[in-house]
Amino acid sequence: MTVVFDIGAVLIDFDWDAFVGSMFDAETAAAVTRAMWRNPDWTELDKGILRDEEILRLFIAKEPRYEKEIRHTFSRLADCPRKKEGTVRLIDRLRAAGHKVYFLSNFFEYLMHVAPDVLDFTAHMDGGIFSCFVHEIKPRPAIFNMLCEKYGFRPSDAVFIDDSERNVEGAEACGFRTIHYTGQDFDRLYDEINALSVQR
């Protein structure tokens, strides 16, 4: 069976609230979050079309009084993602069991440059797609179709795992079986994936 993983908050930890909260008081953190992480323009980062400074201007336009803090937060983005214990073991277990393992992630290029080590686990996978390189994002059907076409598998032969309900629903609409990741430990997740493979 083919197993497709989201990355952020599944295979790595990405706790935005803790990250911003460690730098600012609650009011400032809330404003920075509105301007960046909770801003629909964040998707422009993941699409990889606009330059970093253009994205920053969109963020600042949302909360212009906090320009300094927004720029500081952007400069510190490398501190947000964290490696997750057990990721490589999970991938290796799945591949040893005969599954192909891929990633499909809304991820932006700047973060790859400033925090490359958190993506080390991808060397253990069979491949994948980062949104910023194809200028498409989940949950749009196009990016799911790109992955299937690139690696030659059918959605009905795959399971997709993501922490976002919208992305899970998008995958289901494309014909994938899905698991909504809600923080379950990787041993349980491994069992859930194998249970779906038995149901083929």
Please describe what this structure looks like:
The protein is α/β, with parallel strands linked by helices. It has 2 domains: 2-14 and 82-198, Rossmann fold (3-Layer(aba) Sandwich); 24-75. It is built from 11 helices and 7 strands. The longest helix is centred in the last third of the chain and has 13 residues, at 186-198. The model has no long low-confidence stretch (mean pLDDT 96).
Largest sheet: 5 strands, parallel
Question: What spatial order of strands do you see in the largest sheet?
Answer: 5-4-1-6-7
Number of domains: 2
Secondary-structure class: alpha/beta
What is the top-level CATH class of the largest domain? Alpha Beta
Count of beta strands: 7
Give the name of the CATH architecture of the largest domain.
3-Layer(aba) Sandwich
| Parts with pLDDT < 50 across at least 5 consecutive residues | none
How many separate helices?
11
Order of helices and strands: EEHHHHHEHEHEHHEHEH
CATH superfamily of the largest domain: HAD superfamily/HAD-like
